[in-house]
Amino acid sequence: MTSICLNPDCSDYRKKNTGQIIKKGFNVKGNQMFKCKTCGVRFPETKGTVFYNRHLKEEQIIMICKLLVEKNGVRAIERIMEIHRDTVSDVIEDLARHAREVTDLLIKNVGLTRIEVDEMWSFVKKTKEN
Ligand SMILES: [Zn+2]
Predict the structure, then answer these.
(1) CA 72 – ligand 1 centroid, Å
(2) What is the 12 CA–ligand 1 centroid distance (Å)?
(3) What are 56-65's pLDDT values in tens digits?
(4) Distance (Å) from CA 36 to ligand 1 centroid
(5) How close is the Cα of 41 to the center of ligand 1, in Å?
(6) Fewer CB near the last or first residue (10 Å), C or N of the chain?
(7) Distance from Cα 3 to the centre of ligand 1, integer Å
(8) What are the residues whose beta carbons fall under 8 Å from the beta carbon of 102, sequence distance 6 or more?
(9) Residue 35 C-alpha to ligand 1 middle, in angstroms?
(10) What is the DSSP string of the chain?
(11) Cα 13 to middle of ligand 1, angstroms
(12) Ligand 1 center to residue 101 CA distance, Å?
């Protein structure tokens, strides 16, 4: 769950555990909305996070990470998850671009180990070189 404010103009921007983020209804897509009490801005849970993709849900992106840990390539992920390989490649590119943040989230929020995440990155690197 998002507990950071995603408004760059806010004094609490990206600060963790401010206690200022409250749940605030749902948007038209049914996503949980949050509101920052400091700046009053509302945002959906996944907006601005590395697990946000216009085609996929956060859970699906996390699943892709787990499949990468197990050394499944783009085509294998396409087959397992029935997601087009272009979308899978897109997600992997995106993850690689935010590597530090993704590493953090996978360890803290998803429960992967540092070793698993390191292995995922070396596998991703190889995948991209091919
Ligand atoms: Zn704020």
Answers:
(1) 39
(2) 5
(3) 888 899 999 9
(4) 5
(5) 6
(6) C
(7) 10
(8) 50, 65, 95
(9) 8
(10) ---SB--TTSTTBT-SS-S-EEEEEE-TT--EEEEETTT--EEETTTTSTT--SSS-HHHHHHHHHHHHTT--HHHHHHHHT--HHHHHHHHHHHHHTHHHHHHHIIIII---HHHHHHHHHHHHHHHH-
(11) 6
(12) 20
Handedness of CA 72, 127, 75, 91 (dihedral sign): positive
> Ligand 1: distance of its center to the CA of 18 in Å?
10
Residue located via tokens 């997600």: 91
Count of residues for the chain? 130
The stretches in the chain having pLDDT less than 70 are: 1-3, 29, 46-49, 52, 130
pLDDT in the model for residue 65: 96
Cross-strand bridge partners of residue 32: 26
Residue type, 109: N
How many C-beta atoms surround the C-beta of residue 105 within 10 A?
19
Alpha-carbon 129 to chain mean position:
23
Cα of 71 from ligand 1 centre, angstroms: 39
